[in-house]
Automatic annotation (TrEMBL):
Full protein name: (raccoon dog) hypothetical protein
UniProt domain G protein gamma: residue ranges: 10-57
Gene3D superfamilies the record matches: Transducin (heterotrimeric G protein), gamma chain
Single GO biological process annotation from the record: G protein-coupled receptor signaling pathway
Amino acid sequence: MSPGAHMRSVHGLVEQLKLEASIEKIKVFENACKVALLVGVPAGSNPFWKPKSRTLF
């Protein structure tokens, strides 16, 4: 890698880190009551659950 390309790469990484550092963080415990993985999903409201119907012939 040429020195110029290396500097551009490092500059891009620095810019990415600056961007990530400026993002407002949300504490996990503040939103824990809204996270389905922590509190679970009521069976009746799960949009991914497909009811299984079985018919006997």
